[in-house]
Amino acid sequence: MISVRDIKVVFGRGTPLQKQALNGVSLTIEQGSFVTVIGSNGAGKSTLLGVLAGDVIPSEGQVLIGKNEVTRRSTAARAGLVARVFQDPLTGSCGSLSIEENLALAARRGEKRGLAPALGGKRRDTFKERIAELNLGLENRLKDRMDLLSGGQRQAVSLVMATLSGSEVLLLDEHTAALDPGMAEFVMNLTQKIVTERKLTTMMVTHSMRQALDYGHRTIMLHGGEIVLDVAGDNRKNLQVEDLIAMFRKMRGQTLDDDALLIG
Ligand SMILES: Nc1ncnc2c1ncn2[C@@H]1O[C@H](COP(=O)(O)OP(=O)(O)OP(=O)(O)O)[C@@H](O)[C@H]1O
After folding, report:
1. Rounded to two decimals, what is the model's pTM?
2. DSSP 3-state assignment of 210?
3. Atom of ligand 1 nearest to the CA of 207
4. Architecture of the domain made up of 2-263
């Protein structure tokens, strides 16, 4: 479960560039619920993920992950609670380490022990099984360096890594935006499968209105650091991509020139 209460974030306080990125955001996401997050550029989406991951410490408000109050805990201190997959396939895994070394590190996230014991025979078998489930043939390449993989393969492995330490919260920051459409769909279907099987409480930021409505249980829209739309159930089922685009237009008070991008 994730619960944020009246979160306020101000960047560059007291400078001419002062920016209120989040302005009193409150949100509760039940255990196992998958929420998609949309909003125009600068709406505060990444800042909200940062508040949950620990990159951004809010000036006001409270963040709870499960029963843990983590508002002021560093990213490292909450690493065992929260897993994250980024837009750039090169972020979040280490290119110069092998696939299995990356998996071993991910399995030990939030712990202090070294790498060596993490790569014992039993662990290796588990990694092999988990990677084989991707059906990408990577189970025979566990000793290959991570930077030999394509962007899509790397995101698929990153998703497996995100589930290895037992974190119950998964944060996805436009994790398919850099992939070609076919690979993006593969990674999205994989995401849905992993989230459902492992009952992960998930928040996914996307610029694709289609993805926002097709995946998950609930959609929120941020604008100007505030939640301006929060839909689930039948209300969400009845919502069309065109409705979301119309809301974007209304919020921005202008015609979008990148509708095609948003629909994709
Ligand atoms: N570290 C920072 N220092 C100063 N301003 C920041 C910082 N991070 C974000 N901002 C500002 O806060 C606002 C919200 O940014 P944020 O990155 O959360 O938006 P976003 O909705 O993720 O946008 P995008 O879709 O463009 O990624 C923006 O005006 C941004 O310029």
Report:
1. 0.90
2. helix
3. 25
4. 3-Layer(aba) Sandwich (3.40)
